[in-house]
Amino acid sequence: MRKRHLLFVALAFISALVLAGTQKIMKPVQLKNPIISEILSTFAGDEVVANYSGAGNNDAELAAAKDELEAVIAEAEAIDMTGKNGSEELADMIAYAETALNAKTVEVVEDAIDMLSQAISVFNKANLDADFIEIAQDQGKELDSFNRADLIEGSGYNTYTANADLTIAFKMMNVDVSNCDYILIKFAEPVAVGWHLALWDNQNLVSIPEGATEYKYVFAEDSNCSITDGILSQICMMTFFGGYEAPLVAKVEGIYKHEAEAVQGKMGDVNNDGAIDVTDAVLIIDHILMKNPQNFDASLADVNGDGDIDVTDVVTVIDVILGKVDLSRGVDMVEHPVYTAFQMDLTILAGSTLEDISLTDIAGDSHELAYNMLPDGSYRVVVWSMSNMALPDAWDKMIRLNLIGQGNAQPNIDRAVFVTMDGQRELLTDLTSIAQISNLQSKFSNLYDLRGRRVGKHTKGLLIEKGKKVVIK
Question: What is the CA radius of gyration of the chain?
Fold first, then answer.
């Protein structure tokens, strides 16, 4: 909700100060807001006037302050208030600021400048587009040992004053920017040189241009963007080493995240780049393997709509790339006896450890394999074809596990998901032995060629193992 009562209080106080600063009490203007009129009525007395008689004021300082106030009044009057929220309140504030031009003290004029400036910012906030969501400003003093800028909070903007290097104005961590496309920082007055933004960590800074009245950070335009699962690691404004004149002041009107337009008709475009291509297939595979890929939108990954994100969706995305499936018409789940891809979780039993998993020659060049260790110690394996070719007839022998140890070499199989050529998902529960899906080979000792050079474990031919010649086929 828009806190208009803050503006009402601001109006009351500046009105009181203005009345106090004149030699003769002026009759208050009749305001439409009864709250302001009621508060103002308590400040009509000779005691207040005496306290603000203006004795000893410097005429040059007073004249300079009034020139500044006139500039702020001109800025406010230039605002198009027609049909806008808070237009009556801002008009009342302008009227009382004009009265402050008759004040006899610098303090009263300066207070009028601050009050009217705050009122302009309140008006601006009240008329922002609905797509902007304000992020609460916080100095995050508990987050690190850096200096913090002096802070004066206002109803329209906060004023930060830094007097040293590595001084933080504000720092918000782990900001939820789900469904947003950029951050906008608005300033109540042009920024002086010397302020920097850290949007990933304190080692990567961008300078806010001198004279800027806003700074727009577009996620898609920054290759260093650190958004993961809709969370931006931090938003921090600070000084660095030199390059500014202290005291360095910034008046921050607001920090906003902008809601992006809803993505429609882009299932499968998991990185939101506007195209469904091999990058999307790879990101889905990385998600299945629990590698936490960046720039991955899980809401667009369940392409076939079966409630699970698995290798079935990889196959469907590849079909889209190949022009075999039009997602706008849905995905037909038709039974088909020929498989094109699969995934499963393998648990290596005690006595053996896994060195690697690879494809045998049976796979040919048509399929690819990726695997990753899961938090529970098992290994998730994904096999797929970028052209969605059928698995070979002997698909139960296309995986090779290289194990180290003398224990039971039969890993447990869990969550074996196979995908047909037509994109149908089948969960096979009768796979109880690795022998049904792999050609298991125990690990040899180190292998050397006939010249005594160590070679890889997949090298074939006449080799030397433990001092003896062996033939590896």
Answer: 35
Q: Which residue type does 253 have?
A: E
List the beta strands (DSSP E) in 308-351.
Answer: 339-347
Pairing of strands 147-148, 167-176: parallel
- The residues that bridge with 161 in the sheet, in sequence order, are 150, 249
Q: Which of 383, 379, 382, 376 is nearest to 353 (CA)?
A: 379
- What letter would DSSP give residue 371? E
* Pick from 90, 111, 108: nearest CA to 22: 108
Average the pLDDT over each of 190-194, 235-239, 322-326, 451-455 and give the range with the smallest value.
451-455
pTM over 0.70: no
Angle among Cα 170, 219, 257 to the nearest 5 degrees reads 50
Determine the Cα–Cα distance for residues 77 and 90; give it in Å rounded to an integer.
9
Place of tokens 């902008």: 258
* Rounded Cα–Cα distance for residues 322 and 388 (Å): 9
CA angle 383–388–391, rounded 5-degree value: 55
Residues 326, 330, 336, 341: is their CA dihedral positive or negative? Answer: positive
In 260-367, where do the E strands start and end? Answer: 339-347, 352-359
Q: Are strands 352-359 and 205-207 parallel, antiparallel or unpaired?
A: unpaired
The angle at the Cα of 285, spanning 282 to 291, to the nearest 5 degrees, equals 105
Sketch out the chain's domains with CATH numbers.
4-126 (no CATH), 132-259 (2.60.120), 278-442 (2.60.40)
pLDDT digits (tens, 9 = 90+) for 361-389: 888 888 998 999 998 889 999 999 998 88
